[in-house]
Amino acid sequence: MKNILRTAALCMGLISLVACEKDEEKATLNADAKIEASLSTNNVVLTQGTASQTALTVSWETKNLNINLAPKYTVNFVRKDGKKEKSISVEKSPLAITGKELNDYLISDLEITAGTTTEVTVAVRLVLSDQRNFSSEHKLKVTPFLDEIKPSDWGIAGDGANGWDPDKGLDIKMWKGDDGALVAYATLKTGSIKFRKDNKWDLNYGGSNGKLVSGGTNIAVLAGTYKITFNEKALTYSIEKYSWGIVGSGANGWDENKDLDIKLSYNGAFNQWEAKNVSLKDGEIKIRLNNQWGTNFGAVSTDDKPVAALSGKLKDGGNNIKVSAGTYNISFSFDVKTKEGTYKIEKL
């Protein structure tokens, strides 16, 4: 019994000692303890050409802690409105971030529109093992870029496209699409087309009724703007009417089926639709598919009123976008599955 009491007393003493040590550690934290961070620059314009290089270095130093508690650091990028944040756990200073990494943080995590300059907060946060924390913040101007996409080796040739000559490199480019298929968005002439690889006839496909064979017959087409898909593995193709256009009182009116929408062209390198040097009037616009209202994109807004912002988020059935008279470059991109995207209207 004496041994049990002696052991219990010893345990209580150890617990008291540990508790006292923790209290002592807490007590010795200086009142002026802090973390000081610095950025290698306060303005970053990102480009694809420098994507592999270091774009930003975040450094920091803790001062006057005078305490032996395990620190944990995070570097945080916070959007200007505070609604989106990217947090990176790090062990020690400094943190070097490449252009591609920073670009991904801005576009994917903070949902900042590529090509627009905005301000974000860079915060270095120190959290001690007892949950006390410190922070040092700096403002950073950033301009993210769109990641350029390379076309596939396949293209569309024919008198219904840009000709049959393999030496001129004029085949309509095809891009990676959905479900393993390649896709092109193109305006064709009445004539015929085939699919060929590397602008050569060594490997080409033709056929009819959506089925392809190697070296098959030419595919007849009528003049129009189309979405063209090609699946080499399944040996299938499709050609369907497909065009995006700008509609509204700021363009050529709201009527459908009159072919008055201002046409947008597909830029596969950035997976976006564009119209350059567009003349608009005072009014409102939206973007719709095939000159009809079945699928149309407008701005995302908290109310049901027209939006004045010349860049931002889009959604199917969104609100009208206000514009003033002038000449513009207009671009938009969207996700087929979510039916959400972004737009940019740049006055020239």
From TrEMBL:
Taxonomic superkingdom: Bacteria
Start and end residues of each SusE outer membrane protein domain: 22-124
Sequence intervals crossing the membrane: none
Name of this protein: SusE outer membrane protein domain-containing protein
Organism: Capnocytophaga ochracea (strain ATCC 27872 / DSM 7271 / CCUG 9716 / JCM 12966 / NCTC 12371 / SS31 / VPI 2845)
